UniProtKB/TrEMBL annotation:
Record InterPro entries: CO_DH_flav_C, CO_DH_flav_C_dom_sf, Diverse_Substr_Oxidored, FAD-bd_PCMH, FAD-bd_PCMH-like_sf, FAD-bd_PCMH_sub1, FAD-bd_PCMH_sub2, Mopterin_DH_FAD-bd
Keyword tags: FAD, Flavoprotein, Oxidoreductase
Keyword Manganese tagged: no
Gene3D superfamilies in the record: 3.30.465.10, CO dehydrogenase flavoprotein, C-terminal domain (3.30.390.50), Uridine Diphospho-n-acetylenolpyruvylglucosamine Reductase, domain 2 (3.30.43.10)
Protein name, UniProt field: Xanthine dehydrogenase family protein subunit M
Domain of life: Bacteria
Alphabetical list of PROSITE patterns matching this protein: FAD_PCMH
Length: 297
């Protein structure tokens, strides 16, 4: 099936207008941002909304990357290509550029948005993994005001989020912490494809040891998966190959992959291990630490 079912079309003029339209049009209304997830689903008749509310005119209101003293705030309508090109974002969180380079192709990246990516809640989604890794929080707005939720609270299952029918995601906030870096590693079947498995890592060093570390995996669970046991295992340890090896072991044990066309459970656990180690190693290298002594990538 290549033709969507008939639908009515509205263009929102502001965030408040979009929320008002969602409330007025009810359960059969859906927001459309870049359309790169929703339109394919409509063509396959996996989604059959009666109303589409186009939010692309809200780019002035929702398309931004702003730094405060404490965090970076990214509007939900910020496009992949804008995340890829933003130098201050790359300086603070190189994981974004690592991930964006391997998301789809320029056609998708020119239109697809951060908000649409997180709200699609595909378990293989790369930016959800990035945001989980960076301990992001999500700002959700409805007619009664705003609420802020963690990534764990935001994702409720595959293709399911904390955003209610008459609400929208407006902003993602990422805390800024000194002494850190980050990286993203992904294995895909061909360039621009969804992940077989991907791993994000963020690492903070102080006094020669790991002050904190976070890992977020994609495509090995119901949603992108943060692994607190890795943080606990690495805190206080020197940033060495032994530490990355232990983190990889935990990742392989903790994840919950399924066998599908992209690979077996065993292969995906192996990738979770290997990609976790690579992402931590690359984060450490970005902080001037090279503990590999020639071992691996
Ligand atoms: C060929 C192809 C390859 C791809 N490869 C990858 C890949 O490798 N990795 C990857 O991560 N992604 C990939 N994608 C997905 C791509 O990143 C999409 O851009 C993204 O999933 C959805 O963003 P969008 O803005 O297009 O959302 P849309 O399709 O417009 O919307 C998706 C869903 O989110 C809802 N929504 C959108 N914005 C909001 C909001 N602000 N508040 C509440 N709900 C909202 C919509 O109602 C809809 O339910 C690929 C897509 C294509 C077509």
């Amino acid at each position: 099936m290549q033709v969507p079912a008939p639908f009515e079309y509205e263009r929102a003029t502001s965030v408040d207008d979009a929320i008002g339209l969602l409330g007025r049009l009810g359960d059969e209304a859906r927001l459309i941002a870049g359309g790169h997830s929703l339109l394919p689903m409509m063509k396959l008749r996996l989604a059959t909304p009666e109303y589409l509310i186009d939010i692309n005119d809200l780019h002035d209101e929702l398309g931004y990357i702003r730094f405060t003293d404490d965090d970076v705030r990214i509007g939900a309508l910020t496009r992949h290509c804008e995340l890829l090109a933003n130098e201050p974002l790359f300086e603070a969180f190189p994981i974004f550029r690592d991930a964006e380079k391997v998301i789809a192709d320029p056609v998708v990246r020119n239109r697809g948005t951060l908000g649409g990516s997180l709200c699609q809640a595909d378990p293989s989604e790369d930016l959800s993994s990035v945001c989980t890794t960076l301990n992001a929080s999500c700002v959700i707005r409805g007619a009664d005001g705003e609420r802020v939720v963690t990534m764990e609270e935001f994702h409720r299952g595959p293709y399911e989020t904390a955003v209610e029918q008459n609400e929208m995601l407006t902003e993602v906030r990422i805390p800024i912490r000194a002494g850190g870096s980050s990286a993203y590693e992904k294995v895909e079947r061909r360039a621009g494809d969804w992940a077989v498995v991907a791993a994000g890592a963020a690492l903070w060093l102080a006094d020669g040891v790991v002050a904190d570390a976070r890992v977020g995996l994609a495509a090995v669970g119901a949603n992108t998966t943060g692994i607190p046991a890795i943080s606990e295992a690495l805190r206080g340890r020197p940033p060495t190959e032994d530490a990355w090896t232990r983190a990889g072991e935990i990742a392989a044990q903790a994840c919950e992959p399924v066998t599908d066309g992209r690979g077996t459970v065993e292969y995906k656990r192996h990738l979770a291990d290997e990609l976790t180690r690579r992402a931590l190693r690359r984060s450490a290298r970005r902080l001037g630490i090279d503990a590999t002594a020639g071992a691996g990538t």
